[in-house]
């Protein structure tokens, strides 16, 4: 996860390989951003013997403390397995 502040906006990049951007649930409460989703094991792996598994599978949640806010989500997009969020500071 990457967090960059620029001109009253926060840009958050979250690497989510194997997760559909539509399956990601976002919650913005005060100055905490919660990101929840579930990564399913590919069907091709079913019944096989796992020798190496570096990508975590199953339900997960990440919480990111933001600089003092409040913020509003202005943009949500995805590219190359990453979710890009742009949050604008409300003054």
Quick structural summary:
With 91 residues, the protein is mostly beta strands. It contains no helices and seven strands. It has one domain: Immunoglobulin-like (Sandwich), CATH 2.60.40.790.
Low-confidence runs of at least 5 consecutive residues: none
Q: At the third CATH level, what is the topology name?
A: Immunoglobulin-like
What percentage of amino acids are in beta strands? Answer: over 45%
CATH class: Mainly Beta
What Rg, in angstroms, do the CA atoms define?
15 Å
The CATH architecture would be Sandwich
Shape: elongated
Largest sheet data: 4 strands, antiparallel
Arithmetic mean of pLDDT: 91
What is the N-to-C order of secondary-structure elements (H for helix, E for strand)? EEEEEEE
Output the number of helix runs.
0
**Cα distance spanning the termini:** 26 Å
């Amino acid at each position: 996860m990457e967090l960059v502040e620029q001109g009253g906006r926060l840009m958050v990049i979250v690497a989510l390989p194997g997760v559909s951007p539509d399956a990601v649930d976002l919650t913005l409460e005060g100055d905490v951003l919660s990101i929840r989703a579930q990564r399913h094991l590919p069907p091709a792996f079913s019944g096989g013997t796992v020798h190496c598994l570096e990508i975590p599978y199953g339900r997960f949640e990440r919480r990111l403390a933001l600089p003092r806010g409040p913020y509003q989500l202005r943009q949500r997009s995805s590219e190359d397995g990453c979710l890009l969020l742009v949050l604008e500071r409300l003054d």
